[in-house]
Amino acid sequence: MAWVYLFVAGLLEIVWAFSMKKSEGFTILLPSAVTIIAMIASFALLSLAMRSLPLGTAYTVWTGIGAVGAFIVGVLVLGEMLTPMRVVAACLIVGGILLMKLSGSPS
């Protein structure tokens, strides 16, 4: 169950990063509220996942999902640049996440 919590926490990290961008520096109410709610929920689920997952693994996977997800949302939704170097960087992050998952974590 810890991995489910961690995955959802990572997805919520993408939500809060996107809504923070749309809040224009917390000057627009709805995206600002979504940012805060998604942050709290993401941290709460990360906390639950960390009950049984190692700190390094949980934090790496959480930030990796958020980073790669935000990159994908930026490209697909916000029209940000998709360059070969950015794709390689995202692939390296995914590779790091997979290595952490396969590193023998007990859960």
How many separate domains?
1
Shape: flat
Backbone structural class: mainly alpha
End-to-end CA span: 9 Å
Strand content: under 5%
Low-confidence stretches: none
- How much helical structure, as a percent, in the residues? over 70%
Rg for CA atoms:
15 Å
What's the story with the biggest beta sheet?
A: none
* Average pLDDT level: 94
Number of helices: 4
Listing every helix as H and every strand as E from the N terminus to the C terminus, the arrangement reads HHHH
Instruction: Give the total of beta strands.
Output: 0
Q: Which oligomeric state applies?
A: single chain
Describe the structure.
By secondary structure, the protein is mainly α. It has one domain (2-102). Helix content is 78%, strand content 0%. The chain has 4 helices and no strands. The protein has helices at 2-22, 29-49, 55-76, 84-102. The longest helix has 22 residues, at 55-76.
In short:
With 107 residues, the chain is an all-alpha fold.
Q: Tags for this entry?
A:
transmembrane helix; mainly alpha; transport; 107 residues; Small_multidrug_res
Write the layout of secondary structure elements.
Blueprint: H1 2-22, H2 29-49, H3 55-76, H4 84-102
Helix pairs in contact: 1-2, 1-3, 3-4
